[in-house]
Design goal:
Elements: H1 24-44, H2 52-91
Helix pairs in contact: 1-2
Length: about 110
């Protein structure tokens, strides 16, 4: 009988950044790499040693991990999209000048 060592990734709550200070895009890249590695492991299971039952358990564990990582990846992508939208809204500065008066560019007309 072979021992199966599997670690499960932690899922972060939305709106928080990793304690290590990684950017969202770096976290997305890491998760995508983990998914790729797990997918490769999943492909290699049929060629590995062990009983059919053990292989089935390995497949189920890896598939569960992949689903968790995909959910985390989707959450991070939503967070990244929200941050991009916020940055875009901040950069859309209202045009100032004659057609768009501001405190500095205002004309008082008395008739």
């Amino acid at each position: 009988m072979t021992t199966i060592n599997v670690s499960t990734p932690s899922v972060q709550s939305s709106g928080t950044k990793a304690a290590s200070g990684n950017s969202v895009s770096a976290q997305i890249a890491q998760i995508a790499e983990k998914i790729t590695q797990l997918t490769q492991k999943l492909k290699d299971i049929p060629n590995g040693s062990g009983s059919a039952e053990e292989k089935q358990k390995q497949q189920e564990l890896i598939q569960t991990q992949i689903k968790m990582l995909q959910a985390q990846l989707a959450q991070l992508q939503r967070q990244q999209a929200e941050e991009a939208q916020q940055k875009q809204e901040q950069t859309q500065v209202k045009a100032e000048g004659v057609n768009y008066p501001s405190d500095d560019h205002q004309i008082d007309v008395y008739i």
